[in-house]
Fold this sequence. Notes:
Elements: H1 2-10, H2 12-36, H3 40-58, H4 74-81, H5 84-92, H6 97-105, H7 108-118, H8 121-142, H9 150-181
Keywords: Membrane, Transmembrane, Transmembrane helix
InterPro entries: VanZ-like
Domain VanZ-like: 95-169
Amino acid sequence: xxxxxxxxxxxxxxxxxxxxxxxxxxxxxxxxxxxxxxxxxxxxxxxxxxxxxxxxxxxxxxxxxxxxxxxxxxxxxxxxxxxxxxxxxxxxxxxxxxxxxxxxxxxxxxxxxxxxxxxxxxxxxxxxxxxxxxxxxxxxxxxxxxxxxxxxxxxxxxxxxxxxxxxxxxxxxxxxxxxxxxxxxxx
Length: 187
């Protein structure tokens, strides 16, 4: 995992992609927050988290030339993602801890800030657990040197749920603290 990550991050595209997406997030977070009825600063955090996820998951693997879409791989990807044995193995195996930790941590900031912005844990958790499925399908269709595997989905979903739980915990602590002081919590 670390060798792949070093190779991936040594390319100019990840930093450039994240920089562009961060600028878009900085410019768009207030209109997005206003439209969704979310708090602006946590919305920026959620959008930056999403930018990091997109950068780390949707760019081609190091040394992989771009090819055309491969729609024929959708069936094998669906089989890999929805095989109960593969999902159980992904949930219980920690053979490559570095990869697992990276895939889990990648989703925590996005969902944590989405909870603080929206205060809707059910919606955020539901969407966030499905986003890795879309990422896996996109990776395989793009023919970008990425594999469609259950481990990534499971680990990303674990990270998404951890971010949601952490966001709910911080939201409740903030609400209690403001209730003691007699203020309404910030939005």
